[in-house]
Amino acid sequence: MNVLTRKSLDIDAIRADFPILQTLVNGHQLVYLDNGASSQKPLYVIDAMDTYWKQTNANVHRGVHHLSQKATQQFDAARETMRVFLNASSSKEVIFTAGCTASINLVAQTWGRTNIQAGDEILISTMEHHSNIVPWQLLADQVGAVIKVIPMTDAGEIELDVYEKLLSDKTKLVGIVHVSNSLGTINPVKEMIQLAHKAGAKVLVDGAQAAPHMRIDVQALDADFYVVSCHKMYAPTGIGVLYGKQQLLEAMPPYQGGGDMIYTVSFEKTTYAELPYKFEAGTPNIAGVIGLGASVEYLATLGQQLLGDSEGSLSQNLDACFGWIEEREAELLAYGTAAISDISGLKLTGTAAHKAGILAFTLDCAHPHDVGTVLDNQGIAVRTGHHCCMPVMTRLGIPATTRASIGLYNTFEDIDDLVAGIKRVKELFG
Ligand code: PMP
Question: Which CATH code is given to the segment(s) 47-294?
C-alpha cells in the first residue's frame, strides 16, 4: 500500500478496499450500518485468506513439511500481531477461540469453576450482552454462586455509586462490557477495574464492540481477562481472542481436551501443553487467524498512511489509525445524533455522555422490524430486535430497537440516507 504524507485518510479509497460496499440492494447502493453485528472485510483480509488456501494450506504445529511450516509461521505471526493489538505483555496471554462467546464460556468454566464457590458473588451489569450473562448463570447454577446486577441509568450509564456498594469481599468476578452493543455507552472500565481489584475481585471485560473502534491496552486497563470478537473488527467470523493475565491462565485448568493442548498423554496421566496451547484443543481456525492478523495489518497500513513517511512500528501505526477512527466515528455519531433527534416521534435509546458510534432508536409509529424492512427496501442495512440484550430492553420498558452502527468506511452520506429512510418509514406508517 502507498505511504502517503497526509494527516487524514481518503474515505473513498478506504471504501474501495471493501468490495461488498459496491453491492446493489433492492436497486440501491448498499448503505451498511450493521457493523455492531458484523463488519465487512477488506480485500487485504480476503486476499490473505485466499492466498493461504491457495498456497500455504496445511495443519499447523505438527508438520515438518514446507506447507505446515509456512502455515505455522503465519499463524504464530498473527498471535504476535494480536499481542501488539492488545498490548499484552506476552503472546502466551493471547488465546485464540471461536469468538467472544467462546472466550467468556472458557473463563467461566475454567477460572470460574476453580475460583468461585457457593455463596460467592458475580457482578455483571444490566447492559451486558447475553454472552456475558448466560455463561455466568450456568456457572452460578453449577457452584451455587450468586449473580448481582449493576444497574444503569435511563441514559444507559453504569450507576457507579451503586457498583461501588455492591462490591464486597464476596465478589469474586466483575463482568463488564467495554462498549455496549445495544446503547453505545463506553463504560469507565479502568475505574471499575481499580474498584474491583480493591475489593479483591477479578474483572473480565467484554471488548467485542470496543476493539473495532478504539485502541485497546490491556496492561493500562489492568484487565484480568479481555475478550474480543474478531468478525466485528474487519476479520473473518469464527475467530475470537481471549486475553488473560499469564499468572491467571497458568493456574487455570484446561477447558477442552484433545490434540495440541497436551504435552504427554498416557492412560495413567496426561500433562498439558504450555500457554497459550493449553487452551487451544484441536486444529484451530487457521485461515481465520491469518485473516485476523491481516485485519490488524490493514488497520496498521491506514495508520502508516496517516503517519506519512516515518515508518512507524505496528503499535505506532495502530495508535495513529485508532486516533483517526475515534475522531471520525465521533463526528459521524454527533452528526447522526443531531439529524435523527430532529425526527418527530423518534426516541434515541442510549444517550450516555461517553458513546461509541451506535444510533439505536424507537419510532412511535412503527415497530423496529417494520423500520428495518422499509430501510432494507432502500438498501440500508441496520439491525432490529433486542440485540442479545433483553435485560436492557426490560430496563427501558421497550421490546426492541432499530440500531444503526458505524464502521470505519461509513460516510456522512450514509447517515443522510438513514435519516431519509426513517422519514420514508414515517410516511408509510405515520
Ligand atoms: N458481546 C458483545 C458486546 C457483542 O456485541 C457480541 C456480538 N454481538 C458478543 C459479545 C458476542 O460475540 P461473538 O459473536 O464473537 O460470540
Answer: 3.40.640.10
